[in-house]
Amino acid sequence: MLVEGRHADGAIVDHGDFAVRTGGGIRAANTSEQATAAVLEAQAAAARHDQRLHVVGVTWTDDAAAEAALLLESLTEAGFDNVVPIRLVEAAETLARGVAPVVGYDTAAVCLLQGESTTVVMVDGSEDEAKTAVKQLDGGADRLTAWLTAMFDRSTWQPGGVVVVGPDHDLDALSWQLEKALPVPVFTQSGTPLALARGAALASAQNTDFTDAPLVESIDAVTPAPAPARPRGYAGALTMLVAGAVTLVASVSLAIGPRLLPDKPAGPVKQAVHKTAPAPVAKAPTPPPAKVPTSAPHAAPQPEPTQEPTVAAAPAEPQTVVSAEQPVNVPAAEPVPAPPPPAAPPPEPDPHPLLTKLLNRLHGVPDDAAPAPAPPPPNPGAPAP
User: Fold this and answer.
1) Is residue 8 within 8 Å of residue 237, measured between CB atoms?
2) What CATH superfamily is the domain 100-191?
3) What is the sign, positive or negative, of the torsion defined by CA atoms of 151, 153, 154, 155?
4) H or E, element range at 61
5) Structural domain boundaries of the chain?
6) Where does the DUF7159 domain start and stop, copy by copy (predicted)?
7) Per-residue confidence at 196, pLDDT binned at 50, 70, 90?
């Protein structure tokens, strides 16, 4: 397992597993060679990420002690001077201290199933420094269920949650039993070898703090220039490898990951809204004709002497558009009948009053009707027909 971060608390860069057959002899030598090759591949993977191995932690079960001894020797011969052996119990305790806060409880019981053997780590993180207690059980899943049930019935210390790590074929039935028997949430995850590998990674990083300063100095002295070119996600971080199997932390992060990945709505809808906007633009051309007459009068005041004649021409257009409003302006034409009064003056300058009287007598009009000069205005109109 290749883990990012000087403290092995980063992302899983790479991991792999292979079967190991115990028994010593040639099998142990083959296992050692295969594990050493895996470590060399991990070192190459770290180099591809522009990183350097910080520490190599190795943990094992009791029946693989011979293989572990050969592996430690093989890694040293391959040039790795940062190999740290980690006891299985220490790896389990370190893993439990890291898992408890992940599931959201200060107190938790982390159970690691390995065949007929189970390691139970009780973690109490209510204080500044987490405390752990380890219990080894024999008897498989049934023994674990009975022991946890008795702990909740008799013990004053009770965890807020239970985490069970084991093989896939045992977890389904075991989780159903524990959920019925225990009053707290139960979390199950497959991959015990990987869980122990991650615990060994965390423990080995904590046990090699004294090597940090020299390593940083050597890196700074050898490659000062490439440092700025590193991606920000890898800046100042080194990777570490744990020989063993796969990891539980990756599985736990997958279980919690969906809560941290909310769905986001797609944005094309807004683009569609912008496309429909041109429709109202078509309505804009209709108002301009109404605005044209208004703009003309505003332009008229600038050249006052010249615009007055143009204003007279402009009314011709509104007369065609609005016929109802023109009758209102018709009274303005009433000054036209004013010419009839000027028609009266012609009789006044009459220089021949005698002829007028003579004509009146010829027509049988008495002299007393002198005020009849009013009819003369119609008479001049009579000869016209």
Assistant:
1) no
2) eRF1 domain 2 (3.30.420.60)
3) positive
4) none
5) 2-88+195-256, 100-191
6) 2-213
7) confident
